[in-house]
Structure formats: C-alpha cells, structure tokens
Design goal:
By secondary structure, the protein is mainly alpha-helical. It is about 70% helix and about 0% strand. It contains 37 helices and two strands. β1 and β2 form a beta hairpin. α15 runs antiparallel to α18. It is elongated. The model has no long low-confidence stretch (mean pLDDT about 90).
Length: about 800
C-alpha cells in the first residue's frame, strides 16, 4: 500500500463501487434512482482529486499512454473475455452465426456504450458498464489538453462541453460524449483538491468552510433528488445519457459526489487505511472487472430468487468475496501470514461451496432426516428425535425467508448458507492455528486442498443434516482445546475460551453422543487434573456439561416437544434379539409373547405376529426395519414403561446365544472398523411434499462432480482409503504414537474417538460416513500436530 494514498478517497470509491453492484441488481424505483444520482459521477470527481495536470505536450503524451494502459487496455481485455464467454454459452458455432456475432460485437465495442444506440437505423447493443473506462480516459485526456491549449479559460470550455452534451444529446463512438460530460466532474475534483488544504487550516472556533460545503452540498443533492423524483422527466443515469432536469441533474450528481467525499474525509481518522471500504476503493478496478464478468453467472443464480434484496445481497457478497480472494493472493507478502492463511482459507472454502450450492444443489442437499425436520418446521409439531436445537436452526432460516417474502425453499437456502459459513470458519480457524505454530506452508496448502476437494468435505458442507454442524463444532472444540494448552496462544486466551465453549455446546446439543464424549473428556481431565494451567479448560468443559444438561433437561418443560424415540438408544440390542429370531433359535413361549407384545399392531397390516415380521424382514446392517416399526406404531412409550422386562429378555437370550449376539454386533458395526461396505455420496434431488424445489442450474457440472465423488468411492484403492474404518484406525494409530511422543496431547483424541466409539454400542446403520464425519475433520489437525517438528 502506497504511503501517500488518500484513504478518504479510497473509502468514497469503495462506497461507490459497492453501490454500483447494488444499483445494477435492484429493480427500478427510488432506491435505484438514489444510487444513480451520483455513484458514477463520483468516480470522475475522485479521478480529478488525484489527477496531475501536464505542463507540456510531452507530459500529456506520457499521461495519455499511462491512462490507455490503465483504462482502455483493461476495457478491451474484459470485452474480449465477455465476448468469448457469451459465444460459448450461446452454443451456436456455425459460420454464419459466428460472422454475425463477431460483427455485432465489434459494432458494440466501437459505437455503443452503457445503452443500446441506433446507428444508420440499426440498433447496436450496449457493452454494459465498460462505457465508464473509455469515458474516464477521454475525460482526463481532453481536460488535460484544454488546460494546455487555454490555461486561463479551460474551465469555461469545460462548462461549454457540458452545455453541448445536454443540448445535442448525441451518442458518440467509444462513449466520447460521456467523456465530455465526465470532464466536468473531473474538473470539480481538481477544484476540491485545491481548496481542501485551505479549508482544513481554518480556526476551530467557527464552522469550517469544509463543514459548510459538506452540509450545503448534501442538502442541495437531497433537495435536487426529491425534485427530480417528483418531476416527470427521466432519472439521472449517465450510462443511458439521461441527465434529468437540464443542468440540475449534473449539479445534483456533483453535489452528491462532493458530500460523500467530504463525509469520508471527516470519518477518515476513525477508520484504518486497510479497512474494508478503503480496500474496495483501492481495488475498484478489480471489483468492476469481477462485476462485469460475473454478469452471466448472475443471470443463472439470480433466477433462483424472486426477492430483489436477496439477489442483491448475494451478488454483492459473492463478487466482493471473489475480489478479496484475488487481492489476498496478490498481497501474500504484505499481510501477516496467520491473517493471510485464515482469510484465504475462509474465502476459498466459502466461494467453492457457494458456487456448488447455487449451481448444482440449490437450496441444499436434502435427505430423509432433513425433510422430516422441515416437516416439523412447517407443522410446528417438534420432536427431539433429530436434535431440536438443530431443527431450530432450520426454523431460523425459514423465519428469515418469511420476513423477506420468500418460501420454505429460500429458508432451506438460508440455513445452508449459515452452515457453509460455519464450515468455512472452521477451516479458517484450523489453518490459522497451524500457521501460528509454524507448520510449513506446503503442508498448509495440502490441508486447505483437503478441505476443498476431499469427497466428504465437498459433499457435506452444503448438505442439510446435523452431522456437518456437529463436526464443525467438534473441530473448533479440539483446536481451541489445544490452543488453551499452549503458551504460544496466551494472547488469544479469551477468544479461545469462547471458541471452546461454543464448540462444546454445539457438540452437546447437536447429537447426544457429543454430550457423552464431552462428559468422558471432562471426567478424564478431572481425574488427571494436576497443572494450574489446565484449570481453564476444565472450567470450560464443566460449563459446557452443566449448560447442556440444563438445556436438554429443560425440554421436558415443553410437553408439545416430542422427546424422541426410546428405541433409537437400543438399536444394537434390538438387532441382537432380532437376529436370534431371524436364525430360528429357540425362544420360550413367554419370550416370544414378550416380543409380539412389543408391536402387536403389525398384525393389522401384515397378518403376522411381530416375531414373524422380524424373521422375514431382519436386515443385518440396518436397524430401521425393526425399530422403525416400533416407532411407526407409537410403541416407544410401551418399551420405555417395560424397559426392565426387555432388559431381562436381552440378557437371557444373550447368555444362551452369545455367538449370535456377537455376529449381530459385528454386522452392525464393522462398517466403522472392519472395512465392510461403504456409502455412496453424490447429489440427487429428494422428492418432498413441502414445496421445497430442488434446482440444478448446471446439470453437466453436477454430473461431473457426482462422477468424481463416485469414482473416488468406487475405485479399487480409494474406496478403502475413504472407508470410515480407515479414519478410525488412523485416529487410533495417531493416538498411540502421540502417547509415546507427548502423552498429554493424547487428550486431543478423546473427543473424536469417543464420538466414534459410541457407535459401537448404539448405531442405527452400519457404515454411515456422516456418523463419523468428525474424524475426517480432526485428522489433518491431529496429523500436523503429531508429525511436524515445528509443533513440538
């Protein structure tokens, strides 16, 4: 960053470029007219603030060359890229179409500007916002030439040029007429630059001239805008060559630009030179380029949102984020590395996932569980079967959509965007931590790539389920747990405490085995507590456990919330009893009667007793066929009431048929430790009766991503590498190695391993990757801590 940059001008240009994106997105109305009343003239005025007039024609020629490289060359390159992009998107490649297309685009480049124009009775299409670059080039060039030709009367000639533009209203090639109009605004910028130092040297006891100018210009702009809106003439819009009421429109635009610049000058001392607005202004050319090239993608994803405010906000966020990503890449050596890696990771993950979400899986990946939760949101009949606190996140998205006039589809999208933000932040926090402890940059790049394209991360980040947020909270908890143990992070202790607390609460409330895992870690830490430095981690875990227990137990105060299914906790015991029956092992009359009494309603549907139904429908790797009947017929209350009786039945059959029980357990769990079976993850649209519309804007891209996901999971080698068992045994191996190397860091493994271990005693489905997704989130961090010497 140059030391002589005027931050207030960067701020003004930053506001201007953001308003340009908003103005190009919102519908017609007074809000659009308000933006257009000054936002493009603002850039001409700012250009005049920095313009140095030439002393001779040699300097003029050098200035012209520099301006051509800075303004005309980018305009030409952007136009050619957009032309090629448009041609490829339209997909007509025959010779006749290609010739007509090339001639029309060439005519647009030479003759058109921000609006369509008629040339010899033929309409020439606009080139969009690129009109501004040649217009600014000619404005600076002509004004500088007038200054050299008539040093004492050049400002009068500028006013004459304004008059000619208004009177003739004649479109000229390369937006030359707009350059003549802009020349006056550039002159105003020169005038302001010469007077600002004098205004700021005035005494503080009276109102400074600069303050008077700010107030006066602002009042005039506002009153002129009101008059313009109430009149029947067209609104001010330089791109359309509409200047509103004669001369009043130009004066309004000038005063609006001046008031904003002076306001930014007043606020300059309160902001950082590298702040958000100043950075946007400093790289306004980049933002303009991204906005111009982003028009075609916007035509696709903008069609998904009927609400203008959503389209506007989304377009603004995406284009600004992509611009900042490129700025970060360019300024790597100028920014503190921990900040650089943190921001780069966040932006890279966020942009990738948002584009995948918008173009391939809008409004988010849905499946049976998430549709069930959405049904609760719509009906208001909540259940804690899927954690109620996760369902409330979905409710928040739906309520926000309702406020903005959207439907449930938009609500699901809002939830998914929130999830993508959390996922992006998790990766950012992890990469920042590893950079701070000195992990080599090439390893940081590998880890970032892992979170970007590893199949499960690519799939789950925008997948609507509790497991993604659960994993994000788990990784944040583990990373903050590590940071609080290192003196290296003493300066960020307060922030790390908050990270650990929020991550722990997310773990405990989003899945019941998360609370179990934190409780076990707390118990281990409590027993082994020796160092005073560990007190803060123990206190945070104690708070997490206490708050979570209160929040979970507090659900009993709301009888309208169904507490969930009792049978869900006993998936494996139910499967073990079912396998005994499926293999025709002997049961006493009382035992068989007890099984049939558990779900007698089955006979109404199938004509079979429940034990006969179990015999015919037992699935060794999924519990839903059996426990699903208990849940479907509402027999959970009966199971809970007679829990001791069925516990005795389970023990009795287990003592007689321990081998059968073991086989049932193996079949239900070996997908997590024995490389048996694997799950396919790829995006398909799920039908639902809630009105949630799944949209795939780019089917070819979606098929390509699905092909990549399936190839990685079906390839002879990769399917074992990606299997949940590999993640489990890697984590176990890393733990054993860590215990030998630095024993106290073994605590980092307790949480993810306990989450996975709980699946060995209660799991409804064998080999479901999402249940152990936390392992995939924690493993790169644990590996970096274990193997890199800089982490010692």
């Amino acid at each position: 960053m140059k030391k002589n940059r005027m931050t207030y001008l960067d701020m003004a240009k930053g506001i201007g470029i953001l308003l340009m994106i908003v103005g190009h997105t919102i519908s017609l109305g007074w809000q659009k007219d308000l933006i257009y009343s000054f936002h493009m003239p603002l850039f001409f005025v700012c250009s005049g603030m920095t313009m140095v007039l030439s002393n001779n024609w040699l300097e003029w020629r050098e200035a012209a060359k520099k301006s051509a490289k800075r303004l005309l060359l980018p305009a030409l390159v952007l136009f050619m890229v957009m032309t090629l992009w448009t041609y490829l998107v339209e997909g007509q490649f025959d010779a006749a179409y290609t010739k007509d297309f090339a001639l029309n685009r060439l005519a647009s480049l030479l003759l058109a500007s921000g609006s369509d124009v008629m040339v010899f009775g033929k309409e020439v299409a606009a080139i969009g916002l690129l009109w501004f670059l040649p217009a600014l080039f000619f404005a600076r060039l002509l004004l500088d030439a007038l200054h050299l030709l008539m040093p004492k009367k050049w400002e009068s000639l500028v006013l004459l040029a304004w008059a000619l533009v208004l009177i003739l209203h004649l479109p000229l090639p390369l937006a030359l007429d707009l350059g003549l109009a802009g020349m006056g605004f550039v002159d105003i910028g020169i005038w302001l630059r010469e007077r600002l130092p004098q205004w700021e040297q005035e005494g503080k006891k009276k109102i400074a001239t600069g303050d008077k100018a700010l107030i006066g210009a602002g009042i005039f702009w506002f009153l002129a805008f009101l008059l313009q809106e109430k009149s029947a003439v067209l609104a001010f819009d330089m791109a359309q060559r509409d200047y509103g009421i004669t001369f009043l429109g130009l004066a309004m635009a000038a005063c609006g630009s001046l008031s904003l610049i002076l306001l930014c000058r007043k606020l300059e001392k309160y902001v950082r030179a590298d702040g958000f607005l100043a950075t946007c202004g400093r790289y306004s050319m980049l933002l303009l380029s991204i906005h111009y090239l982003g028009y075609l993608p916007y035509l696709y994803y903008g069609s998904l949102f009927p609400m203008g405010v959503v389209r506007c906000l989304l377009r603004l966020v995406l284009e600004v984020c992509f611009s900042f990503f490129l700025i970060l890449w360019k300024k790597k050596k100028e920014i503190q590395q921990e900040v650089w890696w943190s921001r780069l990771a966040f932006l890279a993950v966020f942009l990738l996932q948002m584009n995948y979400l918008l173009f391939c899986r809008f409004p988010g990946g849905l499946q049976y569980d998430s549709i069930n939760q959405l049904t609760q949101v719509v009906t208001g009949q909540y259940s804690n079967h899927h954690p109620i606190y996760h369902t409330l996140w979905l409710t928040l998205g739906a309520k926000l959509a309702e406020i903005l006039g959207g439907d449930l589809t938009l609500g699901v999208f809002f939830f998914t965007v929130m999830q993508v933000l959390v996922f992006s932040y998790m990766v950012s926090y992890l990469l920042k931590t590893l950079q701070q402890i000195g992990i080599r940059q090439r390893y940081l790049g590998i880890i970032l790539g892992y979170f970007l394209v590893f199949p499960y991360h690519l799939f789950f980040a925008a997948y609507v389920n509790k497991d993604t947020l659960f994993t994000c909270c788990g990784v944040i908890f583990v990373v903050s747990f590590y940071r609080l143990s290192c003196a290296h992070f003493a300066g960020s202790k307060r922030a790390d405490v908050w990270h650990m607390l929020i991550g722990g609460l997310g773990l405990a409330l989003l899945r019941s085995n998360g609370l179990v895992a934190i409780g076990i870690l707390f118990f281990i830490f409590l027993l082994g507590h020796k160092k005073d430095g560990e007190s803060i981690r123990l206190a945070v875990m104690g708070c997490v456990v206490a708050i979570s227990v209160v929040l979970v137990a507090g659900l009993r105060l709301f009888p309208e919330i169904n507490p969930g299914y009792e049978s869900e906790k006993f998936s494996i015991p139910i499967q073990q009893i079912a396998r005994v029956i499926a293999e025709d092992k002997e049961l006493s009359k009382e035992e068989r009667q007890a099984v049939d009494a558990l779900c007698p309603e089955v006979s109404h549907m199938t004509g079979q007793t429940f034990s006969q139904f179990i015999h015919d429908n037992y699935n060794p790797w999924r519990a839903d066929e059996i426990k699903g009947q208990i849940q479907f017929w509402g027999r959970d209350a009966y199971l809970k009431e007679h829990k001791s009786d069925y516990l005795k039945l389970w023990v009795s059959l287990g003592l007689r048929y321990p081998d059968i029980y073991f086989q049932a357990w193996v079949k239900m769990t070996n997908g997590y430790w024995g490389w048996r079976g694997y799950s396919d993850y790829h995006h398909v649209t799920y039908e639902n009766g809630l009105g949630v519309k799944n949209m795939i804007l780019l089917p070819k891209v979606n098929r390509a991503v699905n092909a990549y996901l399936l190839f990685m999971q079906e390839n002879t080698i990769m399917k074992y590498f990606l299997h949940p068992s590999s993640a489990w045994w890697c984590c176990v191996a890393f733990l054993l190695m860590q215990l030998r190397k630095k024993r106290e860091r073994g605590n980092l493994y307790v949480l993810p391993l306990t989450v996975a271990w709980t699946l060995f005693v209660a799991v409804p489905l064998n080999g479901e990757v999402r249940y152990v997704y936390i392992l995939y989130g924690c493993l790169p961090f644990l590996a970096a801590i274990l193997f890199d010497r800089t982490a010692e």
